[in-house]
Specification:
Number of helices: 12
Oligomer: single chain
Largest sheet: 9 strands, mixed
Shape: globular
Strand content: 25-35%
Number of domains: 2
Structural class: alpha+beta
Helix content: 25-40%
Length: about 400
């Protein structure tokens, strides 16, 4: 049907048993806190988090529960192969936006798929165990086509005349809707639209890497194992990337501002002023929250950028911070990450410092990845997240 994407027989919650998806779905595994996990599981004994995350690394138990759900028709398969059109309506910075894309199978051809972030060993071990035990892609990876997706607007207009199969508001108040697409003409149009284009992984780097490794080791056991469950979209206004701020405890407190002032102009500002400045483009800059005060840091010594050897990276704040700013200080304990200045302030308390960065643009992500380069971990946060539990893909012999 297509060399890049193709339809599949999705596995999903039985519509004869469930109609309120707000109790069933959950965010991707890597953004679920312990407190949120408890809240999700109290919603329903069939909340997707019960199989997405193994309790105390008991993968066998998660696998057994998954098999029970299939045997009891909690989860069922579509009769025919198709796509799912998935749309999210959300509000951010006072703006109402929407984002839409296709849930499908994506060919794991490394010549056309470009990651943009480095990965951690721990999450890969965890996701590998889940994959090996459940033998399924539970959550779609999030992939962006560098090509325009105007062809999807026609599909969307057609679907708006029908009631969605799935419709619910999630915990953040975002409206989620999904339609099944199984008409041959529409499937062919979508497949052609995503052919021969660069595809950038937005979310799901760990899942892509372990899925590709699993394919290499098990390709004789399952059909289409070189394809992975994916949400594929393209350039649109609703493709939002949030900044990822860092919070850490600095060891040598007395030297902190002295070190900063060697390379930065340091200005005490209001939170509102700082937020305005962090939306502006230009040379590297960042914010600081420390001991109840906000500061704007503007680079005065551009020699700092020479520590970043690749010119492409010099325009990426997360990379400059990681390679040139962070080494100025000795850090005590782990770095924490957040996408909200409000939360960064809360985490900082009176002992830690929040390093507030600008968001990476989509154009920068595409440029970096297409050159075979990667950003540090936790450089991007695409919002809203693609929820887990809409559809999944089981491996078939």
């Amino acid at each position: 049907m297509g060399d890049t994407i193709k339809p599949f027989r999705a596995t999903h919650y039985n519509p004869g048993l469930f109609n309120d998806y707000s109790k069933l779905v959950c965010p991707p595994y890597d953004v679920i806190s312990k407190g949120q996990l408890n809240r999700l599981r109290k919603k329903s004994p069939y909340n997707f988090s019960h199989i997405l995350i193994a309790d105390k690394k008991n993968y066998k138990k998660a696998g057994k529960k998954f098999s029970e759900w299939v045997d009891k028709n909690i989860l069922v398969d579509d009769n025919v192969a198709g796509f799912y059109f998935y749309e999210q309506h959300f509000k951010i910075d006072g703006r109402r936006l929407s984002r839409f894309g296709i849930l499908c199978l994506l060919s794991m051809d490394e010549r056309s798929i470009f990651p943009h972030e480095n990965t951690f060993k721990g999450p890969k071990i965890d996701r590998k165990r889940i994959l090996q035990t459940l033998k399924a892609n539970l959550s779609p990876i999030f992939v962006i086509s560098a090509k325009r997706i105007d062809f999807l607007k026609d599909i969307r207009t057609k679907l708006m005349r029908k009631e969605p199969l799935i419709k619910f508001c999630d915990d953040e108040g975002n409206l989620n809707r999904a339609w099944n697409i199984n008409e041959t003409a529409d499937i062919k149009k979508i497949c052609r639209g995503f052919e021969r284009g660069k595809l950038v992984i937005a979310d799901g780097h760990h899942r892509f890497e372990i899925s590709y490794d699993y394919f290499l080791k098990n390709k004789s056991r399952f059909k289409d194992l070189n394809w992975i469950l994916a949400y594929v979209t393209g350039y649109q206004q609703g493709l939002v990337i949030l900044p990822t701020h860092r919070v850490a405890q600095v060891k040598n407190e007395n030297e902190f501002f002295k070190k900063l002032k060697e390379v930065f102009g340091v200005f005490s500002v209001s939170r509102r002023k700082l937020e305005e400045k962090l939306k502006e483009k230009g040379d590297f800059r960042m914010g600081i929250y420390r001991r109840g005060k906000f500061y704007l840091l503007k680079l005065k010594d551009k020699g700092l950028l020479k520590q970043v050897d690749n010119p492409v990276y010099r325009k990426l704040d997360s990379y400059v911070f990681q390679k040139a700013v962070l080494p100025l200080f000795a850090i005590k304990g782990d770095i924490e990450y957040t996408h909200s200045i409000k939360e960064a302030k809360k985490i900082s308390g009176d002992k830690k410092t929040a390093f507030l960065l600008r968001a990476v643009s989509l154009e920068e992500v595409v440029k970096v990845s297409s050159k075979g380069l990667k950003l540090p971990q936790k450089s991007t946060y695409f919002y809203p997240k693609i929820l887990s539990g809409i559809v999944l893909r089981r491996f078939k012999p």
